[in-house]
Amino acid sequence: PAQGLGPRSQGAVQAPEGSPASSPPSPRGQVMLLGDSGVGKTCFLIQFKDGAFLSGTFIATVGIDFRNKVVTVDGVRVKLQIWDTAGQERFRSVTHAYYRDAQALLLLYDITNKSSFDNIRAWLTEIHEYAQRDVVIMLLGNKADVSSERVIRSEDGETLAREYGVPFMETSAKTGMNVELAFLAIAK
Ligand SMILES: Nc1nc2c(ncn2[C@@H]2O[C@H](COP(=O)(O)OP(=O)(O)OP(=O)(O)O)[C@@H](O)[C@H]2O)c(=O)[nH]1
Questions:
Q1: Labelling 172: which of 23, 34, 98, 107 has CA 20 to 30 A away?
Q2: What family is this protein classified in (predicted)?
Q3: What is the total count of domains within the chain?
Q4: What pTM was computed for the model?
Q5: What residue numbers bound the domain in which 111 lies?
């Protein structure tokens, strides 16, 4: 299995001897959100962090932004530092610089937008170029709540994910469907 961000990961901080069992230092994990502009990366992060959905005007991320959240995986607290990247092409050189520090990547497309799905191959090529070799990747088909405008079938996502040997799920940053599950899966 791919190496995760959990307690067994490389670089995980072990509790020093004699420290109270109730408050071991948390291992840390850096997670990056990637995918075309507008697929919902910022909304996905806000839903995970605050349990809220930002509807209305779409404000594209400029460069890169991050938020921290502590999750509990198999009883162990893992501090996630989550980097929200700009999907727009003009910020690519900025975001490339952060790839190598990431231990996990959530790669999103929008199930209502075919080009965001078609671009996943190009994203995976970039990932292989700039990220760590053992980086944990998960493919997410976001906006699963908008079934009326769906153009990418769930099976298409599954097939692509299988081709690259990465796990896959459909999500909704609006309803919160599978948002926490995706972060917990990569934090393992
Ligand atoms: N219905 C629905 N709309 C969503 C969902 N996620 C995001 N949106 C909408 O999609 C638009 C783009 O969302 P963002 O989160 O800003 O997209 P982004 O991927 O961060 O875009 P960049 O910052 O340019 O890379 C916004 O209008 C959101 O309200 C979702 O799961 N369902």
A1: 98
A2: Belongs to the small GTPase superfamily. Rab family.
A3: 1
A4: 0.87
A5: 28-186
